[in-house]
């Protein structure tokens, strides 16, 4: 019995010593400098990412305005025609579209929709025929219709985007 009690006390003492050793404040100037450098670099990276995000927002807003894909434009066109249509300016020497280009464009658009946190790739159906993309399904707002159309218009091989997306 004495051996058991002695073993328990010895274990408690060793455990307390190990705990103290592991939690003792052992910061050195090198560690502090490394922590400061890491914090500084993390702050710079955060600022860069935030600035890039703002530039992307501005670029998207400019595209939406250029293609007349603002919320009010979309709502007006939906009310008048029940669908939204936008065409790209044709390039000189535009390549002929075929089934492979259409399939590729559809795949890229679906991937971009899936990558966008605001848009649902499952809620938006995409079909492409001879460079004409048709988007159908439902989205949460008119802004998202414009965003989906802008994503589609950016894809190479797309001449026109027709949206029958509904707000729901």
UniProtKB/TrEMBL annotation:
InterPro entries assigned: BON_dom, Lipoprotein_DolP, Transpt-assoc_nodulatn_dom_bac
Superkingdom field: Bacteria
Pfam families: BON
SMART domains: BON (SM00749)
Domain BON stretches: 101-168
PANTHER family: BON DOMAIN-CONTAINING PROTEIN (PTHR34606:SF15)
Protein name: Transport-associated protein
Organism lineage: Bacteria, Pseudomonadati, Thermodesulfobacteriota, Desulfobacteria, Desulfatiglandales
């Amino acid at each position: 019995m004495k051996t058991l009690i002695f073993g328990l006390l010895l274990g408690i003492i060793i455990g307390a010593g190990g705990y103290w050793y592991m939690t003792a404040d052992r910061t050195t100037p090198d560690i502090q400098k490394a922590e400061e450098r890491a914090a500084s670099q993390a702050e710079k990276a955060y600022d860069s990412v935030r600035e890039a995000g703002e530039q992307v927002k501005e670029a998207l807003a400019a595209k939406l305005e250029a293609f007349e894909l603002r919320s009010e434009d979309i709502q007006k066109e939906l009310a008048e025609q029940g669908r939204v249509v936008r065409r790209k300016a044709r390039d000189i020497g535009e390549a002929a579209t075929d089934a492979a280009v259409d399939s590729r464009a559809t795949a890229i658009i679906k991937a971009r929709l899936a990558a966008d946190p605001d848009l649902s790739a499952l809620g938006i159906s995409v079909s492409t025929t001879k460079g004409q993309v048709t988007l159908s399904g439902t989205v949460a707002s008119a802004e998202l219709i414009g965003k989906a159309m802008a994503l589609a218009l950016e894809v190479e091989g797309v001449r026109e985007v027709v949206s029958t997306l509904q707000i729901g």
